[in-house]
């Protein structure tokens, strides 16, 4: 049955209707009632057991035939649980154990299944606590106290036997289960099933003075008040009994059965010591119980399912129970209790008996406070429902702690009905026909292992009450709205306010009470707060608070408006307007290109879609009714504002709604035109993609809507002078100026411009009655705004061009009029420079595009056809240059590109190519003044700090290979590139400083429509403001940069700063605009003396050997002519020749058979000498044999015949000639 229709709105009367599935249920399976069923409170595990067999079902997601995903319970394990012959499952419980990870948000780590048997065993792992059959397993987990002073209850597992009760501390059980799980996992990994269970701490009470016990509840720790303590002492000890100063803490246990019907037991804390059951000493070393094999196999740990049981099994020693006398009970000799169900607040309990009654117990007072009859074999559950946030906001007790409502759920299988009753003396708030073979599953606990610290910030995903239907396999959850408990505020017959009472109340306002079939009031009657106010406060329609009447009247007015708008979206009217076609056709090519580039697919969520319908609750939350009867729209978030505008106007723009009727309805409702205009423009700008799919139709409808809104009362003031600015049209301009959706903003501006022109013309005609054209300040501002939006659209189209593969990439920049104006005179150039960086456009290519624009006609005749992407970039750049002739002048654009690249390099210095491109862009700047200023700013802002760090580090370590990342911020290769760029930058700086005196500084012009920019100065303007540099100081730094670059390039070990005198050292790294004391320039005598001591012939010989080492034999022969000491050079070249021949004969991977035969014919002395050579020293070992043969011939010419190695050279010549002949 439908949930909303199932709530009982009348008196408490029995359900006469037969359930629809009764005919099926009579022949359906009844075995479910005989099974032991337990479910995890997290709804992820269901256990069904009967006799010695069990089935485990785990939650899994599956997709049905329609593609919808749903949660199902699938069989994950089935088998036999009993270990001893003749024992059967008597009780089971699923305990989810909380995760100990810090990242946990409340989901369980794993779930432990605890099973009790008729033999007395309770098995999580093999355990014997008592020899009688296990009657019932129950668990209590941690709950955060809702009120101060409430005793914090500890976790506990309780096990009921016919005459005993065993309680296990939750913390000890949690740690033991985790330890056993780890042992089982390790044993399974090792291929063994031998584990050593840890000892388990528990308490065992012998329950006395009660004939039979079938169920129990562990209420927890309680402390009596002083009066109750004195009362109990007087009853138990008499008149002269003494009373302790502080009441003792007691654990309360409530049992049901017979003789008496209900028993109350109290165990004083500390009266008996906990008993330790050392299971490891009592159980055999090898545990092969059926449960271990079954459960470990279900969890994926068991590898020996077919292993036979051990021939003998030792029964552990059973600890004796501590006697616990009954304190009092509810005697009823004929009544026998069947089950007890404890409420979540631990103050109430529901008890079922064999007379078909359900009793409600007050556990604190020990009395029965309520009884229901006619519920034979009933199953109970509790629901504790917190107060909704929406109700809390309008409650007079909003500052007090959050309220909770308590409901008792009763399932009567004999009648096939599920009932929900409000506590403690409340009525039945719901009844459902569910079938006669269901099982009501109520856990009564949550996750184990949670405490006040670990539960902070958790959201425990647990279900309180579930109903399992075996005929359909459906598992339903029971949820009760909190506001049903509020009906108890009226203590007389008319406690429930049905829907007809609300309609009667609305009739008293002369309103139409026959609400539409799909009225939001009827669909949201249980969730909307003003109905809750009615249902809790109104007892008589004639005695109603006037404020409440006004509230209901305003809400009905809003709902009527909502219904009217929905009905108007089904009828459309068409208007024709031909005044904007010319303007639209003029910008249509750019719009098409913009649409093509902006139509890339993107990911969005369905609930965020603008096409999602606006609910009545959302509509009412946006609009409020003032005491004067006007409607005021409250602006919350931008998304909600746009969604409301979409609900009101999108149907009009698409042609699906009647524009004039919608505007008339909104005007009659009393919403101000300014707010309607804001809603319309917000929706228009956000739905740019849909608008560009059919621009002609949407523009025409927008013009009609805008004219209709303009004609509303209060839109354009009657006293407005056309020579002043109209606030109405200024609102439209401000919205378009701030929008980043360039195309939608331009279309809105074109429409508004035409509408404003028509409005001003009509006003002028009515006043002047002449043919003079009306001139207005508003029209002038509209002309400027439209031109600016056209510029922004062209610029945005350029920025939308996708970058090529492998470029820097990044998000596409968004621009608007406001952003460009706030960006100053360089705002446009800055945006284009970022686009250049994203596309990795080299300076030469950018220069070609700019030059072609200046001579476009001739280029069209001579230029060959370009590729598609390059042609698009060039064409779009031309359009931008036409729109921004001054803002995108070559010098200004190159200056911003240079600055953009150096900023990107500063973010990642390892990308040395960025700095190189920055220098290349700087070279393209034609103005020496701008070039000089940018070079100075680059040096002082980004370069000098790293440059000085590199110089000081090289001076310190005297080794270019140790220039590390931590000191300079770059690696070896990046430092080499950086120093090369420093040399080029300082050279540009010196050249620009020499040229500034010959030319005048340029003037930075601004485009006419962008002259209102009020942002920061452009890079070019800042460059012109820089002071001149001191040329000798720049030259001094350039010398140091060249020295450092050469040292890094050639891996020289040198101390660069030591080569300068004290004046030169002090002048380094100073501001280039200051005058410093420079070195005299005279040669240091010590350096001159050192140079005279150096033999240049040594350098020449070294150069010859290095050239031969690199394979540059021809250049080496040229330098060899200048060498004086030929004998020493011959010895050096002889070793190099031997290395080449050794590589060819011994170390080459492509050794041939003739080469091996030649090696065998060589003299032993030569073979030994060749084997001693190390070819790895050669920089270029793969040299043709002809070059090696030529080198040996030169050796014979150089070496004299009496040289000690002359014979070796002859042997080398023979070997090389033999190799050459064989090849």
DSSP E strands, number: 30
Describe the oligomeric state of these chains in a short phrase.
Answer: single chain
CATH architecture of the largest domain: 7 Propeller
The largest β sheet comes out as: 6 strands, mixed
CATH topology of the largest domain: Methylamine Dehydrogenase, Chain H
Give the overall silhouette: flat
Mean pLDDT: 78
Q: Which stretches are low in confidence, meaning pLDDT under 50 for 5 or more residues running?
A: 1-27, 271-312, 488-541, 769-773, 857-868
Residue share in helices?
Answer: 40-55%
Treating each run of at least 4 consecutive H or I residues as one helix, how many helices? 42
Number of domains: 4
Radius of gyration: 47 Å
CATH class of the largest domain: Mainly Beta
First-residue to last-residue Cα separation: 98 Å
CATH superfamily of the largest domain: YVTN repeat-like/Quinoprotein amine dehydrogenase
Helix- and strand-based class?
A: alpha+beta
- Strand fraction equals 15-25%
Biased composition (Basic and acidic residues): 10-21
Domain Rab3GAP regulatory subunit C-terminal: 675-1093
Keywords: Cytoplasm, GTPase activation
GO molecular function, one term: GTPase activator activity
Architecture overview:
This protein has 1223 residues and is an alpha+beta fold. It has four domains: 31-273 and 320-484, 7 Propeller (Methylamine Dehydrogenase, Chain H), CATH 2.130.10; 562-801, no CATH class; 824-852 and 885-1082, no CATH class; 1096-1221, no CATH class. 43% of the residues lie in helices and 16% in strands. The chain contains 42 helices and 30 strands. Strands 8, 9, 10, 11, 15 and 16 form a six-stranded mixed β-sheet that branches. A four-stranded antiparallel β-sheet has the order 1-2-3-4, covered by helices on one side. A hairpin with a 3-residue loop joins β19 and β20 (357-362).
